[in-house]
Amino acid sequence: MYILGIESSCDETSAAVVRMEEGRREIAANIVASQIETHRLYGGVVPEIASRAHIEAVTAITHEALDTAGVTLKEIGAVAVTAAPGLIGALLVGVNFAKSLAFANGIPLVPVNHIKAHVAAAYLADPDLKPPFLAVVVSGGHTSLFEVRSHTEFIEIGATRDDAAGEAFDKIGRVIGLPYPGGAALDKLAYEGDPRAVKLPSPALGGETLDFSFSGLKTAALNYINTCRQSGTEVPRADLAASYTRAIVEGIASKTEQALISRGYKTVVLAGGVAANSHLRARLQQVSVAHGARLSVPPISLCGDNGAMVAAAGYFAFLAGQRAGTDLNASAEDHPAWES
């Protein structure tokens, strides 16, 4: 069965064709139109500009995906589209395009939750992966722990109470003058510094909760930067990058370990844009091995937003009987009405 996946939740427009069936998971095409160069001028994503860029790109990349896969719309079994969460204007572009395409061609339409799609990326690269397992989703907008009980049933057991890890990386990277996106640049710079040079608080909240808070960590890092500048001292960027990265990675690792101990899972999936962070991948591998668990992480190409992960999540939602009509609307919320 061929699934067409459409993704437009933030600053990547993507269309993919994925062949999904029992024992077979094949990405026939995965086209991504990135807006990084556009938003680099502003140091972050500008929602209105992102929405307009999606409008300009979505038709062309969908044709490209179909052509690359060598299939026609008549061969598409379902159109899956990210409908929540994300930037509302950006989401609306993908949702309305997918609705029009699906209903004009008599193809079933399947709404997809963006967070579940990130986890579904792991299925494409790991054919042996099956629920139940513990999922750690780390991105620019989310830092959450889930019990994944089936391909479509997710139970959130931990989450950030304010900012997300990806946003925290990008913010400090921008402040110390690293190129956008700051998270990727910080990952590289952290190898050049001392991870214990700057004392910073952990984003992992104390006690039995599995929640995080990154706002205090960001404030502490900003205060350190401002203190250096006010005293005329050059900010030790490499040491700060290493210490800041260590604080975030250790915070996520500690709650992952806590969840493994309390929930007893033997498989961990790390997903989301920040799953591309080399320090986080290595540390969660250590945690998993220490507790007799297996870590599954999508390849770097599938960590960021892409249509293939949407198609994969859409396939399992389709099997579960999830369909949408012409009244499907986008939602910025993590738990949209159509999932209840």
Structure commentary:
- This protein is of the alpha/beta class.
- It has two domains: 2-121 and 302-339, Nucleotidyltransferase, domain 5; 131-297, ATPase, nucleotide binding domain (Nucleotidyltransferase, domain 5, 2-Layer Sandwich).
- It is 43% helix and 20% strand.
- It has ten helices and ten strands.
- The protein has helices at residues 36-40, 47-69, 88-104, 114-125, 165-175, 182-189, 215-230, 237-263, 278-290, 307-319; strands spanning 2-7, 12-21, 24-34, 76-84, 109-113, 133-138, 143-148, 154-159, 267-271, 294-296.
- The chain has a five-stranded mixed sheet with strand order 3-2-1-4-5, with helices on both faces. It has a five-stranded mixed sheet with strand order 8-7-6-9-10, sandwiched between helices.
- Strand 1 (2-7) and strand 2 form a beta hairpin.
- Helix 4 crosses helix 10 (307-319).
- The mean pLDDT is 96.
Count of distinct structural domains: 2
**Strand share of the residues?**
15-25%
Mass-distribution shape? globular
Between the first and last Cα atoms, what is the distance in angstroms? 27 Å
Number of helices: 10
Low-confidence stretches: none
Largest sheet: 5 strands, mixed
Topology at a glance:
Layout: E1 2-7, E2 12-21, E3 24-34, H1 36-40, H2 47-69, E4 76-84, H3 88-104, E5 109-113, H4 114-125, E6 133-138, E7 143-148, E8 154-159, H5 165-175, H6 182-189, H7 215-230, H8 237-263, E9 267-271, H9 278-290, E10 294-296, H10 307-319
Helix pairs in contact: 2-3, 4-10, 5-6, 5-7, 8-9
Structure in a nutshell:
Helices cover 43% and strands 20% of the residues.
